[in-house]
């Protein structure tokens, strides 16, 4: 990617922001253009600067990262939000995805992984850290285990059997390459299936597909992973 990817870092700890800025300064294609110490500042700065990617801590004072993400998405601000979490099992990560985040990553991820994550979502893809995905999904399923059966969205009937398989793999945080390998099809065919799933279910991106799949029990806790 020739153009610089502009990044805003939102975290209430100054040392964390400085650490991320230092890590990203070594990446020639990434530029940190602003910082925010709380969610309210994040909304103001990101709205004003419209960075390509916003690194968003979930737990911040004044306005938390979930509410800040929701405000940015609902306000139509042209940025992709990458949620950062300290623990793999974070009860708020799922809510952040529902609010419109494009992905999430552990704060202690290696520098190159953070940089690659920023590039991934800046390019329009979604990022779901597999370790965090499993923990978040497990927590979501446990939380819903005591409630009534989920209401099945009638839009699921629009999917073909193969598209339903693809949705199930998306729900596990799989890349197009993984899905293609599992289903023995080309990556081009996989991309077509993913596009059709998102279009038919009226979803913005792969992250929304994950949320939709678990809310509609397309994937059930305890199922054997096909890969």
From TrEMBL:
Alphabetical UniProt keywords: DNA-binding, Phosphoprotein, Transcription, Transcription regulation
One Pfam family matching this protein: GerE
Response regulatory domain segment(s): 6-122
Modified residues (4-aspartylphosphate): 57
PROSITE patterns xref list: HTH_LUXR_2, RESPONSE_REGULATORY
InterPro entries for this protein: CheY-like_superfamily, NreC/VraR/RcsB-like_REC, Sig_transdc_resp-reg_C-effctor, Sig_transdc_resp-reg_receiver, Tscrpt_reg_LuxR_C, WalR-like
Protein's name in the database: Response regulator transcription factor
Domain HTH luxR-type: 152-217
